[in-house]
Write a structure and sequence with these properties.
Length: about 80
Amino acid sequence: MPMAALLIYLDTWDDYKRRGPDPLVYVRDYVVEPTGAKVIVEWGNSEALEKERMKYQAFKRALRNKPFPLKITVRMADTA
């Protein structure tokens, strides 16, 4: 299950690298512990975030009956 959080992290990193010198995505925090995994992703553009929000919602729906918590927090960078 932590691999799923890692895949979201890598997908977000891919988003970050594709954006060029002024990225719209920032991984604020990424933690994997024996008790679960947590990723905090901040976006610098609300329109871009809305276009990508579906993948974060799909992640939440896809992971059920988890043996430990896997959490992805997505927010605008200025709301931290």
